[in-house]
Amino acid sequence: MNLPDDTIAAISTPVGQGGIGIVRLSGPRASEIADKVFRPGGRKGLAKAKTFSMMYGHVVDPASGREIDEVLVTVMRSPRSYTKEDVVEINCHGGMVAVRGLLALLLSEGARLAEPGEFTKRAFLNGRISLTQAEAVMDLISARTRESMKLAVDQLKGRLSEKLGSLRESLIEVCAHAEAYIDFPEEEIETKTCEELIARTGEIKAELEGLSKTFEEARFFREGLSIAIVGRPNVGKSSLLNALLKKDRAIVTEIPGTTRDTIEEYLNIQGLPVRIVDTAGIRHSAEAVEREGIRRSLDALQSADYAIAVLDGSEPLHADDMEILEIIKSKAAVIAINKSDLAPQISPDEVFLQARPYIRLSALRGEGIEELKSMIFRANLKDWEEEREGVVVTNIRHKQALDLAAAALGRAAKILAENRPLEIFSIELRDAADSIGEITGAITTDDILNRIFDDFCIGK
To answer: Which pTM was predicted?
Structure first.
């Protein structure tokens, strides 16, 4: 894969009003291009500036000589920079006009507009970080809780890369041992050696499977747990959303059908990022707008990881309640019996309560809300430890590659046990090593890189 040899530029801070805006350059001509628009306060230009130095000056339009902004410019020389290329960062005043005007000047002087994630992509291509570390950059940017940030930082430190690199090296050693016998067919492989190869292959397979299993819970910290609040109209779904968020996000009235569309918000439950969706009341309706809201509610429920089925505990069960409980029968869910501040009309002896976790609460008074949050956390992260040791997998791409590698090792062990040709055993080992290599970037294709970096923001 060819390394880039041009110089890119992009805005690296969110576009909008702010105290500071940063425009970043990376590539062999970074200092040269920046020097064309920068007038330093002293005599020395950027070309002679030391690495990790900052200079004060002004940005000037070379064509008109007009002063554009007062800036601070940081220079980072190759290879001691984020991309391992020459990097220049221009700190100007925040605001759309200032940063876009500065970027336009740099592009007119020979820089190319960076593609999404291209700075991080260059850091990977230049060998500063692994592919898993590059993905961790985006995870860190989009982290919504401290726990999800901690997992991203661990991956950014290279813990997953190191673990997978070690397993891949072990796999290559096993493969080399087997191929030594292939190169010298006159020497038959001994039974003990065969058993050792099977055992080592099994050990690596078990480690890969162990890593893969961490995905089911760890992914929630990266992707967020999606929860749908469902129930018939006027049982207190919107009041429950407001109580969980501790703010008035949804309109609450005594009129059934007030919520006509889904309302989405984010919530932090013990470090777990949660995307919670308040849905329109589910019931039989002839009104077109309400029917569309109900359809969207059912779609939200279908795509959610978890559901909170809300019942009005101050009234006997309705037919609509029973229909909703039937709908969520195959869904991971908790039943929230709301309005516990009123006389209860739903008995603990009800059959549906025997098969589901449930809680009595009052969304209006905020009673039982913290207990509900704990139930949600425990239901979805049964084995999660607050201070985890070891590496976890949060990315579906990583899990799929781990599963492919483990499956190949399973086939390899079977081939040896059945005394089939070592050549086939070796092919399976190499397939497993390639799958692991695709995770860390030891083996890459343009398709893999494009899929990963297209999700990045421009400027990172």
So the answer is: 0.79
